[in-house]
Amino acid sequence: MKKLFTLVAVMGMLTFGASSIVSAQEGNEATPDTAVAQQDTLAAQQDTVGLTDEAAEPVVEEQSLHKAIKTKFIEGGPRFMSAILLTLIIGLAIVIERIIYLNLSTTNTKKLLNAIEEALEKGGVEAAKEVCRNTRGPVASIFYQGLDRVHEGIEVVEKSIVTYGSVMMGQLEKGLTWISLFIAIAPMLGFMGTVIGMIGAFDAIQAAGDISPALVAGGIKVALITTVFGLIVAIILQVFYNYLLSKIDSITNDMEDASVSLLDILVKFNLKK
């Protein structure tokens, strides 16, 4: 009886051990599949996050530009930043007015000279003056002043053209002094804001009684923002200022060349008479 009980116990132990070994082997065989599945899941999540970040990047950049400009403008302080902004607005207003005026002052001098020459041959001086009255621009105005004094001689005509040409030059250059003034003032306002901001930073250090890197860096950053904006305004206005100067030089050269050609036409007209 004891032998039978012992045999049953041994058989039970062997059966339990075999089942445990089989279960362990099945678990080991399933582990690689589970690991691969987990890796695939992690990779999919990373790809999803990467795609989400890439899709979100343009939106962040678009928002950050507007917010950065707004934030920096507020950080620079309302007093000096508003003054710099006002300088930019007034300067651009004058620039736009000058660009429109100079474009309207541009004249096709060759076409005008041909029309005046034909008018002189067909209708005389009065017909030529009528052509100048119907043509816009400083060149036509100078021609009209010269034709109005033809009866006084070529020398008087030449002096009249030179004198009235100086008047036209003053009208072409009108407003440029203000633009140059704003180009000089904008950086000065920025520098003044920087100096005052530095004074405020040192006052904060004195009040705190300790030199904190965060406190010093924050104060200096805010102080330098006004200088940056002032330099940007000056650069923008300087570009337009140089464009206006080149435009005025082009119109002036056309005026001088056309005036010489008009004198030649009037000399020929007097000789034919």
From TrEMBL:
Compartment annotation: Cell membrane; Membrane
**Residues covered by the MotA/TolQ/ExbB proton channel domain:** 137-256
What GO terms fall under cellular component here? plasma membrane
Q: Major place of localization?
A: membrane
Q: Does Membrane show up as a keyword for this record?
A: yes
User: Which membrane topology term applies here?
Assistant: Multi-pass membrane protein
Task: Please list which residues make up the signal peptide.
Answer: 1-24
Q: Keyword set for this entry? A: Cell membrane, Membrane, Protein transport, Signal, Transmembrane, Transmembrane helix, Transport
- Gene Ontology BP annotations: protein import
- InterPro entries for the chain: ExbB/TolQ_transport (IPR050790), MotA_ExbB_proton_chnl (IPR002898)
Regions crossing the membrane: 80-101, 178-202, 222-245
Name of a matching Pfam family: MotA_ExbB
Similarity remark: Belongs to the exbB/tolQ family.
Give the protein's recorded name. Answer: MotA/TolQ/ExbB proton channel family protein
